[in-house]
Write a structure and sequence with these properties.
Order of helices and strands: HHEEEEEEHEEHHHEHHEEH
Number of domains: 2
CATH superfamily of the largest domain: Jelly Rolls
Radius of gyration: 19 Å
Shape: elongated
Distance between the termini: 36 Å
CATH architecture of the largest domain: Sandwich
Number of strands: 11
Strand content: 15-25%
Number of helices: 9
CATH topology of the largest domain: Jelly Rolls
Length: 241
């Protein structure tokens, strides 16, 4: 079961947060004000469980700051990372729309501030705002395309190519550090590409020696994006695992 998340007092005006949000900022001012009356702001420290697979899907969540890992446990007890969400993105929309339990775990990868809108408030609001419903459908389609790409990568690509593609996605993501530094552990990125931590670390070390990346505690910085992009496109290297 997910841990309790306490509502925080003070902080930025919630209507300003909605106006600046990529999904809700398109709405008319009166609609934003109406939606803001339902919204709650919540802060979580890094490592907190936001919800777990099979928890009731009671709310839609948007990331105001920080990063969130979406994952599912595998049969051997390891996590399989499906996605890493960043500032401006929403998650939890599947369970919110169909009313069924959560399909995955959500964990705060960094200190996070979230906005939460409960299903009982959001579904009637969505019915009265078809433009927003269309945007959420677009979001779901984008997630489906991303999942399809991920399955293809896990099935057909060797480790270096998978790893290169993952690094590009992480450093190009909205809200990512402009210096191409991503806050992620080597264990977490190995979960994203579906390979062992040892083989992933070995490949990262090779690139670090070449000066393509810099390895730091809990972070990876891409120094030669051109080299990583070339590898992601062509995959010329042999799998070193």
């Amino acid at each position: 079961m997910a841990i309790a998340i306490t509502k925080q007092a003070g902080g930025p005006d919630k209507l300003a947060l909605l106006r600046n949000h990529s999904l809700f900022g398109q709405l008319p001012p009166k609609v934003i004000e109406h939606l803001g009356s339902y919204m709650k702001r919540r802060k979580l420290p890094r490592g907190s469980t936001i919800f777990e697979k099979d928890d009731p899907g009671t709310g839609l969540m948007g990331i105001l700051s920080g990063s969130v890992k979406i994952s599912v446990p595998s049969a051997d007890g390891r996590d399989v990372v499906l996605n890493i969400m960043h500032e401006g993105e929403i998650f939890g929309e599947i369970a919110l729309l169909d009313g069924h339990p959560r399909t995955a775990d959500a964990t705060a990868m960094t200190d996070c501030e979230l906005m939460v809108i409960e299903r009982r408030d959001f579904i009637p609001f969505l019915r009265s705002n078809p433009e927003l419903a269309i945007e959420i459908i677009k979001t779901l389609c984008s997630r489906l395309r991303r999942t399809t790409d991920q399955v293809q990568e896990l099935t057909f690509l060797n480790l270096p190519t998978r790893l290169a593609k993952a690094l590009l996605r992480l450093t190009d993501a909205e809200g990512a550090d402009p210096t191409r530094k991503v806050a992620i552990t080597q264990r977490e990125i190995s979960q994203i590409i579906g390979r062992s931590r040892e083989s992933t670390n070995k490949q990262l070390s090779i690139w670090a020696k070449r000066g393509w990346i810099r390895l730091q505690r809990g972070a990876i910085t891409v120094l030669r994006r051109d080299k990583i992009a070339e590898l992601a496109m062509d995959g010329p290297e042999l799998d070193s695992s």
